[in-house]
Design goal:
The protein has one domain (11-136): Acid Proteases (Cathepsin D, subunit A, domain 1), CATH 2.40.70.10. 2% of the residues lie in helices and 49% in strands. It has one helix at 126-129, and strands at 11-14, 16-21, 26-33, 40-50, 54-60, 69-75, 78-83, 89-101, 104-113, 122-124, 133-136. A six-stranded mixed beta barrel has the order 2-3-10-4-9-8. A two-stranded parallel sheet has the order 1-11.
Length: 162
């Protein structure tokens, strides 16, 4: 029997984090960490099934800047029934892709859904978070720094004094 390996301390993450999906060219996608959800979900538009269990869709990267999007073609991993937060069931398509959550890269199964009315483009559920993560609900973006909003150009006020 091999000696036990030392247990790594959990990686503390906030209630929302930025994630990357390098295979699709998606960087800094804002995801809500939801320990109440079993599966993870990704907001997509223009979802279209293709032959041979494939699918294509657009990943909308920003809630207000809707033109920021990435077109993706990938294989369907499964189809399943999901109960949404309002208690209604819907049939969804799932895909599997490596996702970077801070320094951790893992294959995550994502259901493809319309989250247009939601603030976050992605939802990270318990299955994606199991193992190395500990969620601190009092903080956000503990793994990556949030970008500060750009300061608007200030107009100089004229005082009449020269």
């Amino acid at each position: 029997m091999p000696p036990p390996t030392p247990k790594q301390p959990p990686l503390v993450i906030g209630w929302n984090e930025y994630v990357d999906i390098p295979e699709w060219g998606v960087k800094r996608l804002r995801a809500k960490v939801d320990t109440g959800a079993r599966s993870s979900a990704l907001h997509v538009e223009n979802l279209r099934e293709l032959p041979r269990e494939r699918v294509e869709f657009d990943v909308v990267l920003h809630r207000r800047k809707r033109e920021r999007r990435v077109h993706v073609r990938t294989r369907i991993s499964r189809r399943g029934r999901v109960r949404s937060s309002n208690g209604e069931y819907s049939n969804r398509i799932f895909v599997t892709v490596p996702v970077s959550i801070g320094p951790v890269v893992r294959e995550i199964e994502l259901s493809l859904v319309d989250r247009q009315k939601m603030i976050h483009r992605m939802l990270l559920g318990r299955t994606a978070l199991s193992g190395p993560f500990l969620v601190d609900v009092a903080h956000r973006c503990l793994l990556t720094r949030e970008r500060k909003p750009r300061a608007k150009a200030r107009s100089k006020k004229r005082t009449g004094l020269s």
